[in-house]
Amino acid sequence: MQTPVSPPQESLADIRREIDRIDDGILELIAKRLDVVERVRAYKAGTGSLGTSPIRPGREAQILRRLIDQAGDRVPADLCFRIWRALIATASLKQAAIRIHGSAGFFASPASQALLREYFGPTALAEHPSEAAALKTVAAHPGDLAAVALDGPWATAWLEGHAGEAQVIGVLPFIGAASPRPELLIFGHAEPEQTGTDETLVLTDGQLPRDFALQPLWQAKTGSLQLSSLPGFLSEGAAPLVGLTRSNGSLALSVLGRYPSPIEVRS
Ligand SMILES: C=C(O[C@@H]1C=C(C(=O)O)C=C[C@H]1O)C(=O)O
User: Fold this and answer.
1) Atom of ligand 1 nearest to the CA of 88
2) Is residue 223 in a domain?
3) Residue 237 belongs to what domain range?
């Protein structure tokens, strides 16, 4: 027996007109957002802070965390992430031309390209023969970024100083189910900003002592060196890192960067 169906109260055309009105509203709001970004660009140009990079990873992370939290069950976290990353990437490109430098070997990975595309949208990718060449280029162009695979051959180039003042400003993926460690590191000159949920990436020659105050969030080997992501926005000159450096000089600890922790969502 068929279940009786009640005739729809409204026509499909009426419902679709409502979708069209909502889309018009979204479009107007996007245009308004881009106009406000132009004022941010002018402000940064006026204070000289565009000279380094228009990208503010801390602010970007706070926007995403707030909206994903506010969306709750009404809008999937992944949709929020994709929409606002597309908006933020375009907003950044409106402020300055940005390129992402990487080695040919790194860009040959479709998975790496996909992670970069979903985070940086249409930002241009510039291919180099090696990680060292990509890091050297970002050192010379502070508004640009460099991307490397966590398990790629970048650490020696970094230790040899090829990245200049560039630091790790973020890791990808930025959203997802808890994973043991990220896949990509992003280098740049954006000023690190504390967001309340941050990590500090350190490179050491050997394991951190077992009794060290902080439990690493993840660790990875890179060549003979040890990479550890520590919870918090830490400074080399303050506790607990300063004590670690003093009592364990042979670790040759260097801070690679400080950045907002990725967003963990249940799969
Ligand atoms: C608009 C800004 O510039 C960039 C774009 C952002 C955005 O689209 O919201 C946020 C931070 C910056 O990476 C800003 O600094 O506020």
Assistant:
1) 8
2) yes
3) 17-42+53-264
